[in-house]
Structure formats: C-alpha cells, structure tokens
Write a structure and sequence with these properties.
There is one protein chain. This protein is mainly beta and 603 residues long. It has four helices and 38 strands. The strands form six sheets. The chain has a 21-stranded mixed sheet, covered by helices on one side. A seven-stranded parallel sheet has the order 9-11-13-15-17-19-21, with no helix packed on it. It is globular and about 80 Å long. The two termini are 56 Å apart.
C-alpha cells in the first residue's frame, strides 16, 4: 500500500501556496475594478529576474523562453506574479513539469540577484535537478517572503544563517539537495513557520535547541540526513504538529516521553536510526495517530499494550528491532487497532509459532511477518481478497502453498522466500494482478511451464532460485512485462529458447547453476534493457554471439564454467569485464583473456 506521506506534504505546500496566491489574486480582482490600466513591472524586479535567467545555462522546461519584453507583469512571463497596483513582483514559481516530461530540467546556479526582489512573497524553484551551487546569501533580504521552496535541485554548501531573518515565513523546504553542515541556530526565529522540510540532504549535527521556538509548527521533516544526538524533549512542545519524520538519520538515545504530548499528531516516523530502550507506554495517548513507524532501530522490550488502543492507526511498522515476548493481552482481545490496514513486525525476537488470529482474521492490505519464527502450514486469511502485499519470508513454513494464493484476487507482491516449502510448483495458481513473486530458497519442485505461461502482463519480478525445479525453460509469449527473472540454482535442463527475445522489458536474467545445454541464442541480443546477465555454471556450448554487443547498458555478465569456445565479442562492455567472467570454459579467447590464436592484439 502506498504511504500517503508525500501526498500529505504536497497538500500542505499547495494549501499554503494557494492561500498566498489566492490572497494576491483577490487583491488583483479588487484592483481591477478601481484601475483601468496596470503599471508595467518595476525595472529593478525585471533586472533581478533576468539576472536569474542569465545564470541558467540550459532550460529544457522552456519556462524562461517566455521571459521577453519589458513588462514582466503582463502575464506572459511564466511563473512570475505581480501586484497589479504597484507592478512589483510578489511571486516566482518554477516547478518541473514532471507530468508532461520527466526529463525536463534547468541547469545552472541561483543568481544573487534574486535577493533584489524585495516585495517577493512566494519563491518556488523546485524539481529542476541540475541547479547547483549554493543558496545565495542575498535571499536574507526578502523580508516579506512567506514561502521558500527550493527542493529537489542539486544545491550544495551550507544553509545561509541569514535565512533566519525571514521572520514572515510560513513554509520553508530545502529538501532533496546536497546541503551540508548544521541547521542554523537562526532558524529559531521562524515563529510563524508551519512547515519545515530539510529532508534528503547531507546535514549533520544535533537538532539546535533554538528550534523549540517554532510554536506554530505543523509539519517537520528532517529525514534522510546525517543528524545525530538525541531526539530533543522540546519536540513535545509543538502542540500543533501533525507530521513528524526524523527517519534515516543517526539519532540515538531513547524515544522522548514528551512525544505523547502531541494531540494532533497523525504521522510519526523515527525509522532507521540508533534509538534504544523501550517504546514509551504513553504512546497510546496519541489518539489521532494514523501511521507509526519505528523500524530499523535498537528498540527492545515488549510492544506497549497502549498501542492496541489507537483507534485511527492504519499503518504500524516496528520491524527490525529487538522486540520480544508475547504480545500484550490488548492485542488478543476484541478488535485491537480497528483501523489497521498495514502491519510490519518483521525481524524482531518474536517466536510467534503461528500467525496471530487478530492478524489472520481481519481486513488487511499489507502483512509483513518475515523472520518471526512462524512454523507449519502457511496461514489461511479470513479476507484474502483484501491483501495487496504479503511477506512471510525467513520463517519455517513447510506446506500450504498450493492453495495459498486462492482468492487473493488483489495481491500484487508476495515473498515467501527462505522457508521450507515443499510442493509441485506446477500446481500453483497465481493471482492475475501479481507483479512480484519471490519463492527463492525453498524446496519446490516440478516444471516451470505453468508458472511462466500463466504469467500475466503485470508480473515484473520472478525469483525461483535455489529450489529443486526441473524440466526445461518454456517458450515465452509476447506481451509479458518481466523485468527480472531468476531461476538460478535449480535442476533445469534443455536449451535457452529463441523466444526469450519476447521479454523486451527484461533487465535481469539469471539462469546460472543449472544443467542447461545448447548454444546462446543470437536473439538474446534483442534484450536491449538487460543490465545483469548470468548464465554461468551450466553446460552451454558454442560461441558468445556478437549480437550481444547490442546490449549497451549491460553492467554485469558471467559466462564462466560452461563449454564455450571462440572469440569473446570485442566491444564494450564484454572486452572490459573481468577475466573471471569467462573463466573455466573450453576455449574462449580475446580480451580480457589472451588473444585468439592467429590474431594479434591491437595496440
């Protein structure tokens, strides 16, 4: 199930943007009734905009191509908004048109002339990918600025402390850049800020204590940085906070009890840090909470019973910690977590034995119980039609797979790898909408024919490696969407079918460690998207076809331990792969191996 965090973030940005621009538009409507003609844009503002344009060396969005003429306020300059009464620029909004062209971008740097737009209230320059350099110090001159969004570019350097002078800001986002250093202490001046987003950078150090002054804060995202130190107690003073994401950092210490003082909190993620200790029992007071993720930390002890009373929680992720013991009684009586749709308790120190009834007997979309010491037959869910994703890998299941997928009509991803499942794989009946099937490292046997020929156009990833599957590789029909096929380490014989060329979307093919014979079909060279190719440790004969030179994006290939002979295709990347990729064959020659007999190595 898709996590709606990004939806929440962009809804908040849009609501703030429309609040500002809507007010300006309303003022413009009023002014239109009192003024017959609007003044042209202020020359200093026009010069500042052209200064920005001059520092952009490439613009495939074509937004700046409209910046011509003397009047930047006539509506023709894309992304520029003016006050119709004064002719001063109050808004600059340049966002990559991702829906139209995912490759659109701007290349260049931010000009210091942007700091001359003294009446600017909204600056949004986002998603341009290749705008580099530092954030201009001159932006601290924009004292009327209410919204500053410079996210998803490639800006580097440190955050200018002078931005702390922008005390009118309601929203600031510098996410998705390459910023380094610490959060300036001057950010404590943002008393009106509702949203602070510094995610996906390389920022370091602790959260500065001055941030306790952000009493209006509703949204705080510091995820995917290198922050360290403790999660400060003053986070509990942000009583208006609805979204808190500190995940993917290096925070240590315990989860502060003060977090329970956030009555409006909807979404909290502290995942992928170094947090220790127990989850505070007071977590159950967060009655509004909808998503909770503390995964991939060093947390221990029992899961607090109070979590079971969170009536609005629909996503719970406590995976990859050290939680142990039986689940508290609150999870086994009545209907705990009545809104729950997604649960992940994988890789803790639980010893469940069987999937708990309160999980099997309810409507769930995502179930992740990998590494929970589950045994016996695979579980039977009372509402299998609600499941879209299930991960029961790294357990001790032995049977039940033949009927497991029955009635899972909405299942998209299934991972049952690293179990002890014994069954004839030809008896499996897969859901039509399945996109990922991972059954590797089991004891499955039988033929591939039914699995690969019942493959729907949705299935993109199949991993059946390290089983006991036999028979031949079946012919492939057209119209398949397979991107990854891994059938390594089985007992598959026969040859590689010419129809493998029908897998035009394939990016990874691994048929190593089998008993495959025959030659490499020339049609394999038609798989132009392949990046990983492994046909090693088989009995394949003949030459490596030169048609494979057409696979220009190949990053890894292994032909070792076969019975191949002749010259290795002399072109990149085949002649620069390491020699081990061709070792233990009959008589391969040519770079990176010694030259073929009768041929001189080109100097």
């Amino acid at each position: 199930m898709q996590n709606p965090r990004w939806v929440f973030k962009h809804l908040l940005i849009l609501s703030l943007f429309y609040a500002f621009s809507g007010g300006a538009a309303a003022a413009a409507d009023d002014d239109d009734q009192t003024h017959q003609t609007n003044p042209i844009c202020y020359e200093g503002d026009r010069a500042a905009l052209l200064g920005f344009k001059n520092r952009i060396l490439e613009d495939t969005t074509e937004s700046l191509s409209s910046w011509t003429g003397k009047d930047c306020c006539n509506g023709g300059w894309e992304g520029v908004e003016c006050n119709p009464s004064t002719g001063r620029v109050i808004g600059l909004t340049l966002q990559r048109p991702g829906d139209r062209d995912g490759g659109a971008h701007m290349k260049g740097t931010l000009s210091s002339s942007l700091g001359d737009l003294h009446f600017l209230e909204v600056m949004v320059i986002s998603g341009m990918k290749h705008i580099t350099g530092s954030i201009p110090q001159t932006l601290s001159n924009l004292t009327l600025l209410k919204q500053l969004v410079l996210e998803d570019n490639s800006l580097g350097g440190t955050i200018p402390p002078g931005l702390g002078h922008l005390t009118s800001l309601n929203a600031i986002s510098l996410a998705g850049n390459r910023l380094k250093g610490q959060i300036p202490e001057s950010f404590g001046n943002f008393g009106l800020v509702l949203q602070l987003n510094l995610a996906r950078n390389f920022l370091t150090g602790p959260i500065p204590p001055t941030l306790k002054n952000l009493h209006s804060l509703q949204y705080l995202d510091l995820s995917s940085n290198l922050f360290s130190g403790i999660v400060p107690d003053f986070v509990g003073q942000f009583h208006n906070l609805t979204f808190l994401d500190l995940s993917h950092n290096q925070f240590s210490g315990q989860i502060p009890i003060s977090i329970s003082d956030l009555p409006n909190l909807l979404d909290i993620s502290l995942s992928s840090n170094k947090l220790t200790g127990r989850i505070p029992d007071q977590i159950g007071t967060l009655k509004s909470l909808t998503t909770l993720s503390f995964s991939n930390n060093l947390l221990t002890g029992q899961i607090p019973e109070s979590i079971s009373r969170l009536q609005n929680l629909w996503q719970l992720n406590l995976s990859r910690n050290g939680f142990s013991g039986p689940l508290p009684a609150g999870f086994t009586k009545g209907l705990p977590l009545p809104s729950l749709l997604s649960i992940d308790l994988s890789y803790n120190d639980f010893d469940f034995g069987a999937v708990p009834n309160w999980i099997r007997g309810r409507v769930l979309a995502d179930v992740n119980l990998a590494g929970c010491k589950l045994r016996g037959a695979l579980p039977v869910f009372s509402r299998p039609d609600s499941l879209t994703s299930i991960d029961l890998s790294d357990n001790y299941f032995t049977d039940g797979i033949s009927d497991f997928f029955r009635n899972m009509s909405n299942l998209q991803k299934a991972n049952l790898s690293h179990n002890q499942l014994k069954s004839d794989i030809s008896e499996l009946s897969l859901p039509e909408g399945l996109s990922l099937l991972d059954l590797h490292s089991n004891q499955l046997y039988g033929s591939l024919y039914r699995v690969l020929n019942s493959t729907t156009s949705f299935l993109e990833t199949i991993d059946l490696s390290w089983n006991r599957i036999s028979g031949r590789i079946p012919e492939f029909s057209e119209g398949l969407s397979l991107k990854s096929l891994n059938i390594a380490a089985n007992r598959i014989a026969g040859h590689i079918p010419d129809s493998i060329s029908n897998l035009i979307e394939l990016e990874k093919l691994d048929i190593s460690r089998n008993q495959i014979t025959g030659t490499i079909p020339t049609s394999l060279g038609l798989l132009l998207k392949v990046q990983w190719l492994d046909i090693s440790i088989n009995g394949i004969t003949g030459k490596i076809p030169k048609t494979l030179l057409g696979i220009e994006g190949l990053r890894h290939a292994s032909f070792r331990a076969n019975r191949l002979c002749g010259e290795i295709p002399q072109g990149r990347p085949f002649n620069i792969f390491p020699a081990v990729a061709y070792a233990h064959n009959l008589c391969l020659c040519g770079k990176p191996l010694p030259a073929c007999r009768g041929k001189k190595t080109k100097q």
